[in-house]
Specification:
By secondary structure, the chain is an alpha/beta fold. It has twelve helices and eight strands. Strands 5-3-2-6-7-8 form a six-stranded parallel β-sheet, sandwiched between helices. Helix 2 runs antiparallel to helix 3 and helix 4 crosses helix 5. The longest helix has 22 residues. The radius of gyration is 19 Å and the shape is globular.
Length: about 325
């Protein structure tokens, strides 16, 4: 994995326009420039093909998770919570038994690594080219995941992508659907406001995290865990067939390969859901919930640029 921490984020944010009669219209007229794209990994930029479910199945064979759920119920819960922090999923499956949850999480990391060794790692077609095009256009790219740093970095090392940062829940505070990963990405890259952030993912948790962070644009893709209908219901502004279609949205008209014309799937997704799109004045950010014992976190409206990290060491 290569973390390029010298990548500059755009500094200016254009005036916020009023929301149009439909999200499609708002997408077409939004004027806030994109400074940061936050991309999910498994199912969004990295081919999953059921690997996460297979890893959970191996865990169930190796660890007694207790009587709280049957195996089928546990697997369905795994499907429903795709994108969330894996340790939080195991805490639920173990009925709150922290010792069992930690052991299960360790076994998940081992099982996922085994499957990577057996099957290899494949990017979603066009994902690497998209990352390169975004960064070449001055847009920062951060990859986020519910995996631990060890599993995350194992995938990134195999893919050899250059990104501005790669974040796991331990790097941010809480996993999805909390807004922490998106807000940590903003702070890490120095993007000027949440209105300049685009969040892309294949799960309901990805979408809800983007919405909770107040991201200017939240996009779903159908290459992973959840359906177009589920992503729209969760609040996605648009749903695309693949992350490679992102540059077809109007906000990316200036990116190499961008046309400013969304594909049929993206246009249908944008037109089919009510809510705020990038730069819409009525899209008030949702205030993130402060961790226990800390002062409440105010809604993020504008964040001063953060100086780039000098070291290019992998994220801890």
């Amino acid at each position: 994995m290569t973390l390029d921490t010298t990548h500059p984020a755009a500094a200016a944010t254009a005036p916020v326009p009023s929301t149009g009669p439909t999200v499609a219209a708002a997408l077409a007229t939004a004027s806030a420039p994109v400074e940061l794209v936050v991309l999910d990994m498994a199912g969004t930029t990295v081919v999953d093909d059921g690997v996460v479910e297979q890893a959970f199945a191996r865990v169930a064979d190796r660890v007694d998770l207790g009587p709280a759920l049957t195996r089928d119920e546990a697997l369905q819960y795994v499907r429903d919570t795709m994108g969330q922090s894996k340790i939080e999923v195991f805490r639920h499956l173990a009925g709150g038994d922290e010792r069992v949850a930690q052991r299960a999480n360790e076994q998940f990391e081992i099982a996922y690594g085994e499957l990577v060794d057996e099957n290899g790692v494949d990017p979603i077609e066009g994902a690497g080219d998209l990352i390169d095009a975004l960064r070449a256009s001055g847009i920062a790219v951060v990859l986020t995941t519910g995996f631990s740093p060890d599993t995350r970095d194992r995938l990134l090392d195999a893919l050899a992508w250059q990104v501005d940062a790669a974040l796991s829940p331990v790097d941010a505070g809480r996993g999805r659907p909390a807004p922490d990963l998106v807000l940590a990405a903003l702070l890490r890259t120095g993007a000027s406001s949440v209105a300049s952030v685009v969040v892309v993912g294949d799960t309901v948790s990805d979408v809800r995290s983007g919405r909770a962070a107040g991201a200017g644009l939240v996009v779903g893709v159908t290459t992973g865990a959840h359906t177009r209908e589920q992503l729209l219901a969760a609040g996605a502004d648009a749903v695309l067939d693949s992350v490679r279609d992102l540059v077809g949205l109007p906000a990316f008209a200036g990116v190499a390969g961008g046309t400013g014309v969304a594909g049929a799937a993206g246009a249908a997704g944008a037109a089919g859901v009510a809510g705020a799109a990038m730069g819409a004045a009525s899209a008030a950010p949702v205030a993130p919930v402060a961790p226990a014992g800390t002062a409440p976190v105010e809604p993020v409206a504008s964040v001063a640029p953060v100086a780039p990290v000098a070291s290019a060491a992998p994220v801890a």
